[in-house]
Design brief:
The complex is a heterodimer. By secondary structure, chain A is an alpha+beta fold. Chain A is 32% helix and 10% strand. Chain B has 16 helices and five strands. In chain B, the strands form two sheets. A three-stranded antiparallel sheet of chain B has the order 1-2-3. A two-stranded antiparallel sheet of chain B has the order 4-5. In chain B, strand 2 and strand 3 form a beta hairpin. In chain B, helix 3 crosses helix 7. Classes of the chains: A alpha+beta, B mainly alpha.
Chain lengths: 266, 293
């Protein structure tokens, strides 16, 4: 075998290897690009699901939405265990992540079973087993959103949302104010208390109007939050026994509105 | 002759039952499992609650989709014990029976894609956009990477396997678009496109059943007369040469991640070349036949 033959053969071998290496690199790059694009598209779709629609309520014990989306396996055991057909699994066109359990308060609210059957068989912990008392559930927060159509606020005695509330006089109270229209009657205003409302949705479902004046929204939408640094003076005083601000502020007594410009006593 | 009727010879030689035995058994199994789930909401007989993503048998034994649980773990959520045990049970089951026996004996999408493949043969549709069979591993990697990045179980939005059960048990909605898309893709674009090339769950189960003792074997391959009927029905026909042809270098055992243990090759073969084998000691490792002989 001459040296020339050998070098030719080596060259052939190298060329063959180059072709297959080139093909390998091309195919790998193609696959990586295709998968990457697909991943971006899917991420785009899924990220949208983080913000679910206002009428979507999660079952009792549901983790905060971000954790819920990371954990719920979408098996529907909670739906099967719900005795009132409240819960359903989202289909692709529902306004919430496909396959996850939710309910619409106006259609079928949560009946707040004492034994919380929807949680008991959850295989993922997306419905937290730490919830032992259904009164501690925070599925949403009721908001009396339309004062101009609420019958009670017109001075009538509807009271339905107040009376159906499972935590009557805790989650919803009736606050009596003067009826300025008749000047002789009282207005019984339904007031929701965020520290007690479970978001079961019975008030929204029972509202006698064609479209409910009181609605239950996910807590992420409806609930406020105090600034982390904020302190209420009277609470601090109770806790420490000392005033937060030791000196007495002299503030003028005035009504909101234009009284500042009215030249009232400052 | 573009339209193939691959079982014709098998029916003539073995009779109609033996030529379709495992096909009917598989359909029976697939529909029975579906029936057990459906019996709860429809008849009020709760033998199994849930769906293929996670279920509870007789209110006691959990079974969970291991890929879904794995995604949840990767998304940073500590799944409660029930889910992990359920996933472990499923993995153990398919480690024994061969991971992809899920694909052919349980998965409901199999009925859709088998129908597409059958129609393809009957209508003589030859168009075939070639995809790499390895694409499923890329997709599996994607399915596992996305929860790490986004902390959302993204695959579960579009997973057609869980979608069928969820749809039948809890309402399908627009989900049938996706199933129709898979059917048309398999029928018109790529032969065995979804199950044989893309499905990441199939890839996952294939890996889970890598060391399964239950395998197909071309035990009597010397009888093979190259009629190609098994190639026509096999959902992963690329694996057949290595079992049938000593020249291709491997033993008669279909020791591969891709075999779904569907048994169609066994049924359709008029020469009875194939058989199921249980190999506890793994007597036929993946070594060249020449080295054995």
């Amino acid at each position: 075998m001459s040296a020339g033959d050998k070098s030719n053969r080596d060259k052939g071998k190298t060329a063959g290897r180059n072709v297959s290496r080139r093909r390998f690199l091309t195919e790998t790059a193609q696959a990586a690009c295709a998968v990457g694009l697909l991943g971006l598209g899917l991420t785009f779709v899924a990220e949208k699901s983080r913000v679910h629609a206002a009428q979507v309520l999660r079952p009792p014990g549901a983790l905060p939405e971000d954790d819920f989306l990371a954990s719920c396996l979408r098996c529907g055991i909670c739906v099967n265990d719900c005795p009132y057909n409240t819960l359903k699994l989202a289909t692709p066109e529902d306004p919430v992540a496909t396959g996850t359990p939710w309910f619409n308060a106006r259609e079928i609210p949560c009946e707040m079973c004492d034994d919380i059957p929807c949680i008991s068989h959850c295989p993922s912990g997306a419905l937290s087993p730490e919830l032992k008392d259904i009164d501690d559930a925070r599925m949403g927060l009721a908001v009396l959103i339309d004062r101009e159509n609420c019958l009670n606020l017109q001075g009538l005695r509807c009271d339905v949302c107040y009376r159906v509330c499972p935590l009557i006089d805790e989650a919803i109270t009736l606050q009596r104010t003067r009826n300025t229209r008749t000047q002789v009657h009282a207005v019984f205003e339904p007031v929701v208390h965020s520290d007690a409302c479970t978001g079961c949705g019975k008030c929204e479902q029972a509202c006698v109007l064609d479209v409910a004046a009181i609605k239950v929204f996910p807590r992420e939408l409806a609930q406020g939050e105090l600034g982390k640094h904020y302190r209420f003076g009277w609470q601090e005083e109770e806790r420490t026994g000392e005033k937060l601000v030791p000196w007495e502020n002299k503030m003028p007594a005035r009504m909101p509105g234009n009284s500042l410009n009215d030249g009232g006593d400052l | 002759m573009s339209k193939r009727r691959p079982a014709t010879e098998a029916v003539a030689v073995k009779g109609i039952w033996k030529a379709f035995r495992f096909l009917w058994l598989r359909r029976l199994m697939q529909l029975s499992i579906l029936g057990l789930f459906v019996a709860g909401p429809v008849l009020g007989v709760w033998l199994i609650s849930g769906n293929l993503s996670s279920s509870l048998i007789l209110g006691k034994v959990p079974m969970s989709d291991p890929l879904a649980v794995l995604q949840s773990l990767l998304a940073g959520h500590p799944v409660v014990a029930v889910g992990v045990i359920g996933a472990g049970l499923v993995i153990a089951l398919y480690a024994l029976t061969g991971g992809r026996s899920f694909c052919s004996w349980v998965c409901p999408v199999n009925m859709i894609t088998d129908l597409a493949a059958w129609l393809r043969r009957r209508l003589g549709i030859r168009t075939n956009h070639r995809l790499p069979r390895k694409a499923r591993y890329w997709l599996l990697a994607l399915v596992l990477a996305l929860p790490v990045v986004t902390e959302i179980l993204i695959w579960e939005f579009i997973n057609p396997i869980s979608l069928v059960y969820r749809g039948l048990l809890f309402g399908l909605g627009a989900g049938w678009y996706l199933l129709a898309a898979i059917f048309l893709f398999d029928l018109l674009v790529t032969s065995r496109g979804w199950c044989g090339h893309l499905c990441p769950l199939g890839a996952f189960y294939g890996l889970a059943g890598k060391y399964s003792p239950l395998i197909m074997s071309a035990a009597r391959r010397e009888k093979c007369d190259d009629c190609m009927d098994c190639y026509a029905v096999c959902p992963e026909p690329q694996i057949l040469p290595m079992a049938l042809k000593p020249k291709k270098g491997f033993g008669p055992v279909l020791k591969t991640l891709d075999c779904t243990r569907c048994g169609r090759c066994l049924d359709v073969c008029a020469k009875d070349v194939f058989e199921y084998q249980v190999q506890l000691k793994n007597q036929h490792p993946l070594i060249p036949v020449k080295a054995v002989e």
